[in-house]
Model the fold of this input.
Amino acid sequence: MQSNFNKVVFVIFILINYLIIAQEYEWESFNSDTTVSGWISSIKIDSDDTKWICTYGNGLAKYNNETWTIYNESNSDIPNNLCWAVNIDVEGIKWVGSGTNNGGLVKIDGDNWEIFNKNNSGLPNNHVHSISFDKDGNKWIGTLQGGLAVFNDTSWTNYNTQNSDIPSNEILCVTIDSENKKWVGTWHNGFAIFDGSEWIVYNTDNSPLPHNTVIGFAIDSENNKWIATEGGGLVKFDGINWIIFNTTNSSLVSDDLISVEIDINGNLWIGSTFGGLAFFDKTDWRIFNKSNSGISDDSPLCTTFDTNGDVWIGTWNGGVSVFKNGLNIVSVDKVSDVLPQEYFLYQNYPNPFNPTTSISYQIPKDCFVNLMVYNSLGQEVSTLVNEYQISGKYSVQFNATGLSSSVYFYKIEYESFTKVKKMLLLR
Done:
C-alpha cells in the first residue's frame, strides 16, 4: 500500500513539473512589420517594464507588453531610422544614439524630445554608438568617428586622439565601474581605462588581450571585467590576471563576440556571430541556438533582463526573441543553501537533446548511488547508476534511442539526499 502511495505522489510530482517545464522552455519572437524586425542593436527596460528597442533601419520601438509604438523619421523627431544605442538614466529619461552623418543624440523626457548633433551642440560626431552614465549623472557618449564625448546637461568635453591618450576615435562601448572609472572599447585599437586624469591602454602588443576590437564590457560583483572581443573570444580581467575563453578551451561556438551581459545572479550571457547565445555561470556553459531553442537568429546583438526573469534578446536578422523565465531556468542547477556545494546534481547537457545527453553529479563522500530516468507517467525507463561509489564528480551518458519526444525526469538518490531534474527529448 505504501509503495503504491509513493508512486502516486511521484506521478503527481512529475505531472506538476511537466506543466512547469512547458512554461520554462517557452520562447516568444517579435519579427514583423507590426512589431520589430531584422537587426536589433540595443534593448533597455524602464521602471514601468516598458521595453525601448533600437532597430537598424526602422527607428526606435517602444513596447509596454501590450502595444507597440514605432518612432521613425516620418512620425517623430528622431533624426535617423538607424538606431544604435539606447540607455535610461536614473530620472527615467531615455537617451538614444541615432544615425550616421545626419543622426545624433536624442533625449526623450516624456513627450519632450531634444536632439543634439554636431551642428547645435558639442557632440563631435553624429554617429553615436554607446551611451553610459557615471555616478554624477554625466553622459559618456562613444561616437564611431569623433572619439568620446562627456555631457553634464550644460557643457561638453571631448576626448580624441589629438587631445588625449585615448587610442582611437572609433568608440564601440563605454562601461563605468564602481570606482567611476571609464572602460572604453575601440575598433581595432584595444581598450582604455580612464580615471578622470590618466589613460591606461591595453592592446595585443602590451597585454594578453587576444584581439584589438573590443565590443563590450560586463562587470561582476567581484569587480572582474568580462571583455567581449571580435575575433579573440571572451576575456576575464581582474586588473592583474587575464583568462581567455575561446572555441579551443570552452563551449563558445564562435570567437567573434558581439555582446556580453551579466544577470542578477552573476551569470554571463554572451552573443556571438552565428554562434548563438552562450550562457556561462563561470563553471558550466549552455548554448542556445536556432536548432535547440526558440531563439530566432544565431547572432544575438544584445541581451537584457526584465523583472519577471525573462531574457530579452535582440538579434542580427530575427528581430527580438524572449526566453520566458530564462533567468530562473538556468539557475536551477544550484542546490539550496541547506547543502551548499556538498551533494550536487547538474542539469543535463545538452538540453533539449537528441538522442544522447550527459548527466553529471558529485558526491562529497563514499556512498551508494542510484540514478534513474522516468517518463512523464512515472515509469522507469532506464537505470544509469546503481552502485557504491567513492567521493568525486561523475558523468554518465543517457541514450534515448527508441524513446519518443517528451519530457523525462532523472532522479538521483544517495544516503538521505534525493534530487529530481527535468530534461527534454526533441526528435
